[in-house]
Write a structure and sequence with these properties.
The structure holds two protein chains of two kinds. Chain A is of the alpha/beta class. Chain A has helices at 13-21, 32-37, 49-58, 61-70, 80-83, 189-201; strands spanning 2-5, 26-29, 40-43, 75-78, 86-89, 95-96, 101-107, 120-125, 127-128, 143-148, 150-153, 159-164, 168-175, 178-181. Chain A has a single domain (2-201), classed as Rossmann fold (3-Layer(aba) Sandwich), CATH 3.40.50.880. Chain A is built from six helices and 14 strands. In chain A, the strands form three sheets. Chain A has an eight-stranded mixed sheet. A four-stranded mixed sheet of chain A has the order 6-5-7-11, covered by helices on one side. In chain A, strands 8-10 form a two-stranded antiparallel ribbon. Chain A starts with a strand and ends with a helix. By secondary structure, chain B is α/β, with parallel strands linked by helices. Chain B has a single domain, classed as TIM Barrel. Chain B is 38% helix and 25% strand. In chain B, helix 1 runs parallel beside helix 2. Chain B is globular. Classes of the chains: A alpha/beta, B alpha/beta. Chain A binds chain B through residues 11, 13-14, 17-18, 20-21, 46-48, 117-125, 143, 145, 147, 164-165, 186-190, 192-193, and chain B through 1-3, 5, 40, 45, 67, 70-72, 74-76, 93-96, 98, 120-123, 166-167, 195-197, 221-222, 251.
Chain lengths: 203, 252
């Protein structure tokens, strides 16, 4: 069973539906007992970093997630949920993340040419950088759906995939049992479902 | 390289797709859910559901359909029609919509875009503008294109983007239904005015119209159409193959 961490951020309907579509049990929960009993953890998130980080702490979910990850349980962060895995974010200030991965979240405006639109929104190709269990069922160059204005920087040791948008932006990260996707697998058609399937079955 | 999006639009009334569709291999061509699945499997990059129901029962049916679609289709889903308040945003987002498009609702209450963007993020708020030339200037029309608001269109669109609209769907009333190509002049004016994604709507009649759109206006991010897809006049698969042949970035 995959526990989808519910800390009051975002709409989890599509995410839950996508697990149902691949025949996997996913429970949206804020119950530490359910999270401890789960095989895998999924950290979702949309909106602003500060707000999400505060809610994660206020709900006490941060401590439960950190404890389970330290015990070796696989964790997948999606979109803002991926950004929360890092040490810091510089979205409207400077805020601490979970610190599970080295690196910081910075505005894509810092690295892309000025005539590129922000947010980076739409389908873009993945460039796979290292073997990763998440990507065993997809191909280099497959397109996935992105919506973001910030990206994970200085994270070379975890970088698993990038995407080209006037610069090479971090698309996915993986280190030990911690995984993250900047894009939305639950909105990326068959490719996205195959990534979620890999998380459930191959990780 | 970000790809150019191809977006079919479904008008839904009392739970059924209106304007009719003509497809082989679909059991129920008027079922929005089945049509959405069909498009998703055949290359659509995103779907727009437009609720043209007036009654409360029709509205409830629409949200049921939305929920069922979001259970079965895993590409972005934009919902429009009857969005007048932040509660309307909430209602459709809870049923699985990813983005919400506002048109007359923003004209009636210009604060709506800002309120929704603050709560759900800019990426969630799509401005849909129906624009028509009147005495040589672009004017915004309301109520499905029936009512001239008198507002100058480019200024209106710029203002909505400043308020927080994260994307603009530009529907040219002048070219809509004519099937002789998108309104390149109007689209160029909008692309020059805003820095958010622009989705072209109105006027596509054949594959070449999309090629001309993306080659002439590289700043346009997506092409939207309804009946030419529904009636099989343009197959999204063929369209995207042709785009790829011409070097236009596309998701195959």
């Amino acid at each position: 069973m995959v526990a989808v961490i519910d800390y009051g951020v975002g709409n989890l309907f599509s995410l839950q539906s996508s697990f149902a579509a691949i025949g996997q049990e996913a429970t949206v929960t804020a119950d530490p007992a359910v999270i401890r009993a789960a095989d895998k953890l999924l950290l979702p998130g949309v909106g602003a970093f500060r707000d999400a980080a505060e809610k994660l702490r206020a709900s006490g979910m941060d401590a439960v997630v950190l404890e389970e990850v330290r015990r070796g349980k696989p964790l997948l962060g999606i979109c803002l949920g991926m950004q929360l895995l890092f040490e810091k974010s510089y979205e409207y200030g400077e805020y601490d993340g979970l610190g599970l991965l080295r690196g910081a979240v910075r505005p894509i405006a810092d690295v892309i040419p000025p005539d590129y639109k922000i947010p980076h929104i739409g389908w873009n190709a993945l460039k796979l950088c290292k073997p990763c269990a998440l990507f065993g069922r997809i191909q280099d160059g497959d397109c996935v759906y992105f919506v973001h204005s910030y990206y994970a920087a200085d994270c070379a040791d975890a970088l698993a995939a990038t995407t080209e948008y006037g610069a090479e932006l971090t698309a996915a990260v993986a280190k030990n049992n911690v995984y993250g996707c900047q894009f939305h697998p639950e909105k990326s058609g068959g490719v996205g479902l195959n990534i979620l399937r890999a998380f459930c079955e191959d990780v | 390289m970000i790809t150019k999006r191809i977006i079919p639009c479904l008008d839904v009334k009392n739970g059924r797709v209106v304007k009719g569709v003509n497809f082989k291999g679909l059991n129920d061509v008027a079922s929005p859910v089945e049509l959405a699945e069909y498009y998703s499997a055949n290359g659509a990059d995103e779907l727009v559901f437009y609720d043209i129901t007036a009654s409360a029962e029709g509205r409830a049916l629409f949200t049921d359909i939305l929920r069922e679609t979001a259970r079965r289709v895993f590409i972005p889903l934009t919902v429009g029609g009857g969005i007048n308040t932040v509660d309307d945003f909430d209602r459709v987002l809870k049923c699985g919509a990813d983005k919400v498009s506002v048109n007359s609702g923003a004209i009636r209450n210009p604060a709506l875009i800002g309120e929704a963007a603050k709560r759900y993020g800019d990426q969630c708020v799509v401005l849909s503008a129906d624009v028509k030339r009147v005495d040589g200037t672009f004017r915004v029309f309301a109520k499905g294109g029936r009512e001239n608001t008198g507002m100058e269109a480019i200024g209106w669109i710029r203002r909505c983007v400043a308020e927080g609209a994260g994307e603009v769907v530009l529907n040219s009333i002048d070219t809509d239904g004519v099937k002789r190509g998108f309104d390149l002049e109007m689209l160029r004016a909008v692309c020059d005015a805003v820095s958010v994604p622009v989705i072209a709507s109105g006027g596509a009649g054949c594959i070449e119209d999309f090629i001309t759109l993306f080659e002439t206006l590289p700043k346009v991010d997506a092409g939207l159409a309804a009946s030419i897809f529904h009636f099989g006049e343009v197959s999204i698969c063929d369209l995207k193959k042709r785009m790829a042949e011409r070097g236009i970035p596309t998701r195959l």
